[in-house]
Predict the structure.
Amino acid sequence: MAVLQYREALRAAMTEEMERDSSVFLMGEEVAEYNGAYKVSEGMLEKFGPKRIIDTPISESGFCGLGVGAAMAGLRPIIEFMTFNFSFVAIDQLINNAAKIRYMSGGQFNIPIVFRGANGAAGQLAATHNTSTESIYATIPGLKVIAPSNPDDAKGLLKSAIRDNNPVIFLESEVMFGWKGEVSDAVDYLIPIGKARIAREGTDVTIVAHSKSHYIAMEVADQLALEGYSAEVIDPRTIRPFDIDTVIESIKKTNRCVIIDESNPFASISSEITYQIQERAFDYLDAPVLRITSKDVPAPYAKNLIEYYMPQAKDAYDACKRVMYVK
Amino acid sequence: MAIPVEMPKMSDTMDEGVLAAWLKEEGEKISAGDVVAQVETDKATMDLEVYDDGVLLKRVIEEGDSVPIGGLIAILGDEGEDISAILAAYGLGGSKASGESETTSAAEPAAPSKVAEQPAEDADPVSATILTTAPVPVSATSDAGGRIRASPLARKLAGEHGISLFALSGSGPEGRIVKKDIESAMEGGSSSVAPISAPAAVPAVSSSAPIAAALPYAPSDSSTPAAAPSAAPGAYEAVRISQMRKTIARRLAESKFSSPHFYLTIDVDMEAAIAFRDKLNEKAAAKELSKVSFNDLVTKSSALSLLQHPWVNASWMEAEGEVRLHNEVHIAVAVAVEDGLITPVIRHTDRKGLSQIGAETKDLATRGRNKQLQPSDWSGSTFSTSNLGMFGIEEFTAIINPPNACILAIGAIRDIPVVKSGAVVPGKRMKLTLSCDHRVVDGATGSRFLATLQGYLEDPMTMLL
C-alpha cells in the first residue's frame, strides 16, 4: 500500500488509464503547461505530450462541447473543471448533450466522458465559488455522479469512470487534494461505480455522509464510541446510481439514520436518501431520519459565517443523540 | 360496495360523540335519509341519518361508546358483503401483514370496550394489531386527535409480539413510544405494561384493566390525583362525565386560562325599570303578547349599548392577528339545563322588540332543556349574559364565553335603603358585573359601556329613541 495525496491518486488513475488506452486524453484550463491549477496533472504533459494533455482557453462551454463530440467520435475524454462552479457556464453541454445523446440517438452513440474537478465549499471563496453541485447533476438521468472521500476511492473510482461508456460527473475537493491516504497497489485497481463503503460498523445509529462530510461522520462516531454508542458510518462514494441497499440493510440493524450532506438542504442528496429510506425501511425506523446540511443561503464570505454555514460536527452529534433518544 | 358510516361533526365545539341509542338492527334494510341512531354531542342529542341505501351490515360501536369525529360507527352494504377491508381501513381489522383472510372473530373487536371483555385466550397478533391502531383517545401517548404516537418500528414490534400500545407510556419526544419501550415491555420491565397475548401468563381480568384505563371516561394516569381517596364501596356515586360537561370543562377552562379576565360592577337603580315593565306588561297582556321580564330589559339595553361600544362587542382572534369588532349584535343567554348549561343566541338582538326577545328567550330555554337545539341555535354570539337573580344572588362573576370579549352577570333586584336628596329612603337596586377580556377591553372601555347600560335601565324610555 502506497500512501498518496488525493491529487496523486487522481493522477495515478489518469496516468494508468492513458497508458492502457490511447483514446484517453485530458483537457481543461491550465492542465498542461501549468501542471494543473491544483497540480493534479503535474508531469503529465511531459509524459504524454500536448496532443493528449490539452490546455484550453477559458471557455467551458466550448471545451465541454468539444469533449462530447470527441466522445461521440470514439475517444475517451477527461474534462477538468478548475472547479465545478465553472461547469454552470457549460451546463447545456453536460445536461442536454452529454447526458442525453445516447438516449436520443437510440444507443448509436456512447458518451464515454468524465467531467472532473473540485466541488463544494472550500473556505472563504464567497457565494459563487462554493456550490455543491451533486444534487444538480444527480437529478439528470443519463449522468453518473461520483464523490470519493479518500485517495483510495478516488483512484479506484476514477479508473472505473474513465472506462465507463456513460458520462460521469466526478466530484473532487479543493480541501482534500492534499490529504493523504493509503492506496491499493493492485494492478488495475477498479472500484465498482454504485457501491457504498461501510467505513465503520456499528449497531446504534447509521450515519450516511459522502465526500468531506465523511470525516465529520467519523469524528461523530468516535465521540459516540467514547460514550458507549456504536455508530455505523456509510460512505456512499457514488451519488448516482445510489447504493440504497447498503443503507437500508444498515438501518434494519440500527433503526435510525442521520445524513450529513454539504449540499444546500432543499431537494438535496439528503432529501432523496431520506425519501428512499422512508419508502423502503419505514417499519424499521424508530425515529425520524435527520440530516445536517449547509445552511439554506448562498455561501457567505466571512470566515466565521462560512464556518457556520457548513455542516457542524456538533449538530451531527446532537442529531445522533436525538434519533437514539438519549440526552 | 360496503360503505362506512362515520361520526359526523354535529356542532362547532364537538370533538367526539356518544352513541346514545341504536334505532336499527344489524341486517335491517336502510334507505338514504333513515335515522339509524341517536348521537349525544356536547350540546344535544341528535339524529344520525345515513346518506346511502343498503343493509346495516355492522354496528361497529355499542350504545354508550364514544368515538371521535370521523370514527367508524357502522357499515352499510349488500347482504353478506365482506367488511374486513373497511374495518382495516379504520384500524379495526387486521393489517395486510397479518393475513388477508380474517375470520369474523378477528375482525370482531371493533369497539375497545368490547375488546376489553374478550378473554385473553382470544387475543392473537391480529387483535393486538387492532388494539394498537384503534382510534381511541389514550392518556399519555396520544395526541389531541386520539392517535397513539409511536415510531413505525415500535408499531411493528408491538404487533409482532402482541403488545398493546395503549398500555405503554412512551419515552420519546411528546410521549412517542419507541423501540426501547417495547423492549422493556417485552422484558416485563415496565409496570405499566400488559401483554395481551401469552394467554397462559395473563389472566383475562388483568388484560382488560389497562385497556379500560385507556377509555375516555376512565381516569387516566395523568388525570388521576396522586392521593385519590380510596373510599369504601358505596362512599360515592360515580357519574359518567357527559359530553356537555366535558365541553363546559374544556371551553371554560380554555377561556379562564387564556383570556385575562377583569371585572366591573355597577349598581343600577331599577325603580323606573320596574314601573316601565309593569306598564309594558299591561299592554302586552291586552295584545296577548309575551310578557317582558327584567332579564329581557337587560338583554335589550345591552344590545343597544353594544351598538355604541364596538370594542365590547368584539372578539380576540389570536390566529388571525386581529380584534374583530362585530357589526351585528347577537346576544347569547345562558340557560341552565338538567346537567349543565347552554348559551342559545338571540340573533340581531338590537333590532328586536322586548316582547319578541322575551318570547325567543323562553322558546330557546325550553328547547334547550329538551335537548332540541340545533348547532345554529348556539353559534355565532358576539356577547353573552348570565342571570342568577332568580336565585337571590346579589352579584357574581361569570366566565367569558369565547370568542366573546365580555359577559354580563346579572344579580337580583334588592330592596335596600338608599340615600336620595340627603335622606335614607327605600330603593330598588340591581348589580351588574361585566367580565372583560383584557386583551380586547380596557377598564375605561368596559366602564363606559356599563354607564350606557345603566342609563338605559334607569330611564327605560330612552331605549325607544
